[in-house]
Amino acid sequence: MRVLAAMSGGVDSAVAAARAVDAGWDVTGVHLALSRQPATLRTGSRGCCSVEDSHDARRAADVLGIPFYIWDFAERFQADVIDDFVAEYEAGRTPNPCLRCNEKIKFEALLDRALALGFDAVATGHHARLVNGELRRSVDEAKDQSYVLAVLRPDQLAHAIFPLGNSTKDQVRAEAAARSLSVANKPDSHDICFIADGDTQGFLSRRLGQQPGEIVDADGSVLGGHDGAFGFTVGQRKGLNLTKAGPTGEPRYVLSIQPKTNTVVVGSAADLEIDTVRCVRPVWTSGVPAAAADGTGTDLRSNCLRFGCLVQLRAHGLVSAATISGTPDGELTATLTEPQRGIAAGQALVMYDGDRVIGSATITAAHRATVSA
């Protein structure tokens, strides 16, 4: 089997490539050049896609004795990830660029080119498992990346390999050291890879300019001002710079962003609690569920879904029991058993059956439908 190993220059992708070689496959390494200015995207352990990373990936390929290439995907990354990121914030939503990169770059642009060149699969260093073609959580819960892979379709997963899913990060680093890979102790990258200094608000301001507006409490009273509603996200408490306290004197949190009026709405922590989440554009990673924990499954006569599962609403968020209802290719509603806080439009709702990924959908709205007596 011919395997294209995506090598970012980090320890995970290097060990993943090494395990692909050990499996006896015909492996070629490729590093994706995603930045128009590679030297600008790293500050310490922040960021990625730098010249340093490409050199680290090449050195790892040399140790493994495999061919190595650099493919320039900078224009595609700019359009599908960076520009999308800016547009989503401008629209009052909070995107997940790692999820978008997996969807549009690694398992669309990269996979499509790999298949066109005669490769059978793409191997990556993601911490996730494939069992009988179905995506499952990694055994290392702290490093699990199934959430950001839940946008993948079954036909894409059929050409994916995740060699690290049965290992912890400590085991991966130990193996890298034993193989004399220089990246064994290289720090993980953090935050958003194309915002090396970690200043998301500054990054957005440079692209969208100042757009002054009001910060208002849930009751409509004006508590302060801002230079751009795009600089806020649901659940945010720090950096609000309110000029007066809320009606109750309690700390205020961002409840919603209203791009049409350029208004940021804040309220109490209790106001953040939601139990109903609406989503669109479902992707059924394991195929449309025919049945689930509550036994209801799909009503083929009405083409409606209704099933129980577990849901995760942000990359490192809590997992909640929920009932999903809607249509397989339209809008879904998740009704949570227990309320959660700080759920933002633009994020992904990922559905699980135990550790198996059922699918995902994009959150458009969240609210509290029930109030305890």
TrEMBL record:
It is found in: Cytoplasm. The record marks H126, Q347 as: Interaction with tRNA. The lineage of its organism: Bacteria, Bacillati, Actinomycetota, Actinomycetes, Jatrophihabitantales. Catalyzes the 2-thiolation of uridine at the wobble position (U34) of tRNA, leading to the formation of s(2)U34. The gene is mnmA. Keywords: ATP-binding, Cytoplasm, Disulfide bond, Nucleotide-binding, RNA-binding, Transferase, tRNA processing, tRNA-binding. The active site is at C101, C193. Its EC number is 2.8.1.13. It comes from Jatrophihabitans lederbergiae. NCBIfam families: PRK00143.1 (NF001138), trmU (TIGR00420). Residues 143-145 are annotated as: Interaction with tRNA. This is tRNA-specific 2-thiouridylase MnmA. Residues 202-268 form the tRNA-specific 2-thiouridylase MnmA-like central domain. Residues 308-363 form the tRNA-specific 2-thiouridylase MnmA-like C-terminal domain. One of its GO terms (molecular function) is tRNA-uridine 2-sulfurtransferase activity. Pfam families: tRNA_Me_trans (PF03054), tRNA_Me_trans_C (PF20258), tRNA_Me_trans_M (PF20259). ATP binds at A6, M7, S8, G9, G10, V11, D12, S13, L32, G125.
